Amino acid sequence: MPVLALLSAVFVVGVEQTLQWKYGATGIIGLLLLTIGIKAKSPAVSSIGAVVLAVLVSGPAL
């Protein structure tokens, strides 16, 4: 079980660093909103976070 927790933590930190590098502070805010919404079971907050991330990712295509 500790190995799974360690791998999960490494994955999350890696995703956060990639978002920070590629999308800046807005990417971190979107990820934070998505995570808080999922943990708090709030569909509105998680939806806002998902929309922020989707707009960031699809921004160059628009």
UniProtKB/TrEMBL annotation:
Taxonomic path: Bacteria, Bacillati, Actinomycetota, Actinomycetes, Kitasatosporales
The protein's name: Uncharacterized protein
Organism: Streptomyces lanatus
The organism's place on the tree of life at top rank: Bacteria
